[in-house]
Amino acid sequence: MGRIMAIDYGKKRTGIAVSDPMQMIATGLDTVETKNLFDFIATYFADETVDEIVVGEPLLENGQPAQNLPRVKAFINTFQGKYPSIKVTLQDERYTSREAKRTIVGSGINKKKRRDKSLVDKIAAVIILQQYIEKKHYTA
Predict the structure, then answer these.
(1) CB of 16 within 8 A of CB of 6?
(2) 19 forms bridges with which residues in the sheet?
(3) Residues linked to residue 65 through DSSP beta bridges, in sequence order
(4) What is the pLDDT of residues 16-32, one digit of tens each?
(5) N or C: which end of the chain has fewer CB within 10 A?
(6) In terms of DSSP bridges, do strands 50-57 and 87-92 run parallel, antiparallel, or are they unpaired?
């Protein structure tokens, strides 16, 4: 069984998380500049088996599409062209950045590190993946 990768796709930065090979636990992997995302993915896929990617679906609180959704869909289209055998799933990402910030504050990380937006992106990807894993295991 391969891993599941989560993508918190942003205009400038993208947070990435992966599951363990048993697809039970989400772990933050990295935050990369979005322009380098496909290079990062290619390098990671060369070393690890990934069965599926979960991409955060940017929605407003009322469920309407957020401004970043067209970029996310363009990323998915390009990804599917490059990796047609890997399943892509959208996962609602509402509130994940807010929850990531709360997690960072609650973890006791100092103020200087809390200002690091790349940490928020990576933790948001972890939250997206963990929510997906829980949904997958409890509705299967």
Answers:
(1) yes
(2) 26
(3) 59
(4) 999 999 999 999 999 99
(5) C
(6) parallel
